[in-house]
Structure formats: structure tokens, C-alpha cells
Amino acid sequence: MRGSWRAALAAAWGRPGGRLGTLLLLGIVAAVALGPFLLPDPAAQPDILGGANLAPGAGHLFGTDQLSRDVLARVVAGGRVSLAVGGLAALLSATLGLLVGLAAGYRGGAVDAVLMRLVDAALVVPRLFLLLLLLAAWERVPLAALVVVIGATGWFATSRLVRAEVLRLKAEPFVLAAEALGAGGRRIIFRHLLPNALGPLVVAATLGVGEVILLEAGLSFLGLGIQPPTPSWGGMIYDAKDVLVTAPWGSVFPGLAIVLTVLAVHLVGDALHAALDPREAAIVAAVPAPASIPAAEPVTRLDLEAGLARMSDSREPAA
Amino acid sequence: MARWLAGRLAQGVLTFAVATVLLFCLMRATPGDPLARLAGERQIDPADVAHLRARYGLDQPLGRQFATFVTGALRGDLGVSITYGRPVTALLRERLPATLLLVGTVLLVDFTLGLWLGVRQALARGRALDATLSTLSLAGYAAPSFWIGLVLAWLVGVEWRLLPAAGMADPLLAADAPWATRALDVARHLVLPALTLVVVSLAAAMRYQRAALLEVLAQPFMQTARAKGLPARAVVWRHGWRNALFPVLTLFGLWLPLLASGSVFVEAVFAWPGLGSLAAEAVAGRDYPVIMGTSLLVTVLVVASALLVDLAYAWLDPRVRHWT
Fold first, then answer.
1. What pLDDT digit, counting tens, does each position of A98-108 carry?
2. Were both Cys, which of A112, B56, B93, B153 would link to A104 (CB 3.0–4.6 Å)?
3. Smallest Cβ distance to B22: which of A121, A214, A307?
4. Nearest-CA distance from B197 to chain A in Å?
5. C-beta of residue B147 within 8 angstroms of C-beta of residue A237
6. Contact yes or no for A222 and B147 at CB 8 A
């Protein structure tokens, strides 16, 4: 298992997109980690009267905002928050999706039917609208609640992905052999199914980080996300939109930070997907094309992220 | 066929029913009382609060509240907007056409330009063109729609003064202007919001088309077509692309959630008078009935489009017909 992971990572690194994405992501993480030691205090308002909305220059590489705060320092500080929220929420989603997918796929029967009907229903409501309903109640959304709520709305497609993988693995000879040898359910799930279902999960979780960063930015833009004075990329764009014409740097730089980060995450996710999924190599191999979308389990019920992730997948067996 | 259709329809209705229960529970599960949030800092006489609670049915048990909500919704009554003081259904009906125009335009561009670019990518697989298009479109997909919208509004609308950056029509335009003038005016207002949504959604169309065509290109019949000496154009478009179009069709169903979410931000940025900006306003005003109403309408549209896609798929491709 460890060997195959190393091989997969090497294969991902070997792709130009994977390499670019990894380097970008490492750069962003390094900037976010080291920034606070090199940059001015992001909350400092040195000169509100004379130092507000200064154009990018020697003193302030990214300029200053309406309150004369250094935009670069705030972009870096906002990056810490965005990356942390993205990582934690995606981790929560992946865990929930894994547990539900394992339970539904392994237990089958009524458990599977009930869980998957619920997931189907949750998938037809766009995630943003679920979040709007959940978050609109709060006057000021606490950061921890934001992470939990975003994480709790992101696992539906993942659980389907894991379930499909479990269904496929359950019929494999090595699982049947383990069962015949008398292995218990827990052992089969954690020793045999889980390690082999991890590939698609890692890809989904990686892409999930990008999705959460975009969602969190959007929620902050609507006033439901991270609350000021905590800097966040979406909140910075929102705050600076009133001076967009006179001081565009206040919104342009946080936006660029989002684009670069999400792009990097996607490049890494794609490369991992290609490396972990032998089918990518087998895209050249003959697969009966339209039958790859079994109408009994239409792909239309998965959300777009999952759709992108399983672009060339046809693992879902017809139920 | 009738049986398959009935089964599929029942599945759609069940999904929607469960989604409705889910949405209702979410709305009620959130901490805090909608009325308390509405009252804010103001001191309200407890008697008035009780009166309001009774009026909005909040003093009823949860099951009763849900039953009232469902019977109301079935009659087309989704409650009254807190901000506007008007029926939610009327607001939705007013705002729907603008969103359909916007989303329809975006779909048209995505499914023409996007598919064409995807084909180009598949044909250039592994070469510089493929990688460049892929990274560029991914960068668009990675951008927050409201940010793209703001930057476009600033550059194209304000700096270069090429196109209007707010609203759906010029308020100074005479109401009795010829229809062609008015249509052109709406079209000019449509360009920037539509372009913003295209930028963030084009990548998905391209990637789907690319992957689907690559799969078809690897099929033996493609080799046959090439071997019998057909011109490359005929091989790619007539034999390849036609078969690679079916998987792309499923994308149509994945599309609506993406565009519905995107339109919330884009319509808010460009003051486009559609469902998206209605939802954004409702969030700002904590207008629960309207948030609930837009979510329900979007959900209906998603379920219906998934159903239509399944139907179209079975219609177009005899190989996946279940009723034969």
C-alpha cells in the first residue's frame, strides 16, 4: 500500500500540471506561514487620514486599504484563515462522506437505501442554498460554526463515491477470501475496503479544499462568512468594492490570491486523480462510451465537483 | 416505456419531497428565533411577540408547521416576504424571467464555445494547446464569480465605458421606444453578467467534452473510419463528436446548481433583477420566507432538469433505453 502511494505521488509530480500545482501550493503555504514574521501587523492602522488607499509602492507592495492597513499583510493573514477553514471543512466532509459511504456500501439493504435517498435529496439542493438557510440565522457567524456547517454540507457526493468504490471492492476476490477466512465486518472495512477506497477520497478531499475556499469567499461576500475584523479574502473584496474605481488593489489582490490557491489545489487534485486512477491511463482503452453513464444511477445526481473528479470514471455499478 | 417513465418520475418526486423536508428542517434547526432576529435591538412587548408568533404559526408544533407549509406550497402559497411584505410566489414569478434569460445565454455559450474548445483540446491531447486551454479554463473555474464580475464592471463598465454594468435596462430609455431598441438595450446589459458566468463555468463543459471525445476516439470504429480513408474532419465530427455528445448531455443536469449558485453573486454584483439577486437581498435582510422560496424553486428546477436529461438521453441513445 505504502509503495503504491509513493508511486502515485511520483506519478502526480511527473505531470506538468501536478508539478506546477504543488509548487504553487507550497509557495502559498510558505508565504502564509512566514508572512507574519516579515510583514507589518495586518490590523495596524498607521495613518487613517493620509495613508488610506495608497497605491502599491515601495512601502506597501500591494497598497493600503480604506483604513490604511497594509493589503499584502491582510492578504497573507486572510490566507491563513481561508486555508485553515478550507482544510478543516474539507477534512470534515471527507470523514463524513467516508463513514456514510462505508456504511451504505458495506451494509447494503435498507441502510443503503435510506442513506442514499437522503443523499440524493441533499444533492439536488445547491450547496450554497443549504448554507444560506443554515447561516442566515446567526447575527455573527462564529468561525468554528462556519467550519462545521460548511464541512457538514460537503460530504454528499463523496459518500456516493466511496459507496461505489466499496460496492466494487466487495465483489473482489481478496475481500471474498477474507470473508471466507472468517474476518469480521470491522476488519474487512478497515483493513481491506478502506485502504483501497482511499484514492478517490483523497482526490475528492483535495478538490473539496478548493470548493470550500470559493464558498467561504462567497459567503463572506454576502456577509455570512468570516466576520470582520478577522481578515478573509472574500471579506476584503467586499470591503474594497466601494472604492474599486479609485483603489482597485484592495479587491484585485485578494481575488488573485483566491484564483491562484484554488487553481493550485485543482492542479494537484487532477494530477493525483490521474495518478491514482489507472483508468486515466486506460482512457485510451476501449470502454463502451455511453453505457458508462448507467441511467439507473444517473451521473446527474452528483454535483459538479464530483462530476469533474470522476470524469472518466464508470465505477458505479448499476444498482 | 410508460412504466420506466412513471418509475423515473416517482423517483424524482420522492427526491424532491425528501429535499423539501430537509430544507424545512434546516430552516427550523438553525439556532435563534426568526422573530428575535427580526426585532434586533428594539424592545418589543411580549404580548406583541406572542401575537406575531401566532400570526406566523411559530407557536404550533413542528409537525403542524410543516403540514401548513406543505399544503400552502402545493397551493402556490410560500408565505409573505418580510422585507417586501408581498407574497413570495409573486416575487419569484417576477424575478424568474431575468434569471432564465441570463442562465439560458450562459448555457448557449457554454454548449457551443465550450464544446468546440473541448474538441480542440481532445484533438491536441498532451500538446501545448491542450495544457494551455486546460490551465486557462481552470483558472476561470477557480475564480470567485463576484470577483470576476467586479473586475469586469470596473474595467469594461467604468474605466472603458463600453457596456452598462448595472441593471437590466437603461432607466432613461423611453418606455415606448421601438422593441428593437429595447431588446438591444437588454442585450447590452446582459453581456457582462453572462460573460462572468461563462468565465467560471466554461471549464466544466470543456473538460467533459474533452474526456468524452477521448474515450470515443479510442474506439475501434474510429480506427475503421480512418482506415477506410475518410477525411480527418469527417472522422472527428461525424463519427467521433456525435458519439461523444451523449455523455456531455448529462452535464446539463449538473449545470443548474452551479449556475444557480453563481447567479446569486453575479446578479448581486450587476444588480440583475433575477432570482439570484433576490436571494442575496433576502440573505442581507434575513428574509426567511424568500430564502426558503428561492431554494425550493432552484431545487425544483434541478430535479426537473435531471429528469429531462435522463429522458433526452434515453430518447437519443437507443443503447440506454430501458423500456425495450
1. 999 999 998 88
2. A112
3. A121
4. 14
5. yes
6. no
